Amino acid sequence: MTLVGPLHDDNRAFQIRAQFTKLGSCLRAFLSQDDGRLACISQASPRNVKSKKTKILTEYVEPPEDYVIPRDAVYAPEQQKAFNACVRFESNCNMEDAAKCFGKVVERYGKESMVGFDAYCRQSKQYSDIGWQAYSAHRKFPTWPGAKPPPGTREEGIANMKLAAELSDDAISLRPNHGRAHLASAFNYGRIAIFSNNQTKVDLCNFVRHESLTATQLDSKDDLAWHALARWNYEISNITPVVRHLVVRHWYGGEISASFEDCIKHYRTAQALAPWRLTHHFELGKVYLKLGEPEKAIELMEKTLKCETQDINDRLSQLHCAQVLAKLKAERQKPAGRFRKKRKVSRGANGAEPVESELQA
């Protein structure tokens, strides 16, 4: 079985891994200090990458017959009981105890086992969620009052996101052909990018896109993988034209292929795979709001509030959604002509409407 797309070119794969190895050390330097970060990241440019004896997905390794992807994983009764106990902490927005619980599962069964590896990825998610709660507080977004730990400072948030990224990096080294490991990496570094300024977003954009694409290729039925790819398109499309067309072209010697059209397409794919997951509806609603289509945004956000929550991210999304929806409905009650007019935003090269789904039969 051969992978298609950006991972198919062996030489390019070597360049990508070498670049990301260097970029990872640069990111750690960036999070700990500001001195010399420009020179460090400049050395990580693909044009300066030297050939290294590194291994990435140049060859796809067929998983064993008993392999099951995490969302369908079936463990031994004792393992399932231990894993479910951790999930209960997570669903109650207790990331602190959930991280400790998943860590104990890893210690008990080992990172090499299926349940241990899945717990390792979920432990990474807990630290990322702790950092994201700090980001929400820093940006004056709603925070969940019962969350444990309570929102920390911006610096504490970055430190937790850094720890999450280190765990997902280790998970990839353990199982490079496991989609959820790359998905965790995409979310972790994507959140670090969102937390940062435009320059850092540019530094990390290719890495996050690569990890998201890898996750969708390894498991095309994982809705969160398509969500990560959609979110990448949304964030990059929001970068100012000057940064996108001048800085990025100078930095990488090419354009970033991101659009609201692709963003909508990927979110619709995620919706089709998991219509019960509220974050797909809310984030897609934000895209339509950005495109000046408030009626579609309202419909999706109303659906968001009807979905059940699974973790702290869902709780925060519903709180934020309720605020945005209230403002939209208040705006709609104003006299005619006061509602924001629909503005034209390019959705793609041909300007065509996005297709309904990317799912293949």
TrEMBL record:
UniProt keyword list: TPR repeat
Protein's recorded name: Uncharacterized protein
The keyword Nucleotidyltransferase belongs to this UniProt entry's keyword annotation: no
Bias (Basic residues): 335-346
Region: Disordered, residue numbers: 332-361
InterPro entries: TPR-like_helical_dom_sf, TPR_rpt
Position of the signal peptide: none
Start and stop residues of the TPR repeats: 278-311
Keyword Coiled coil: no
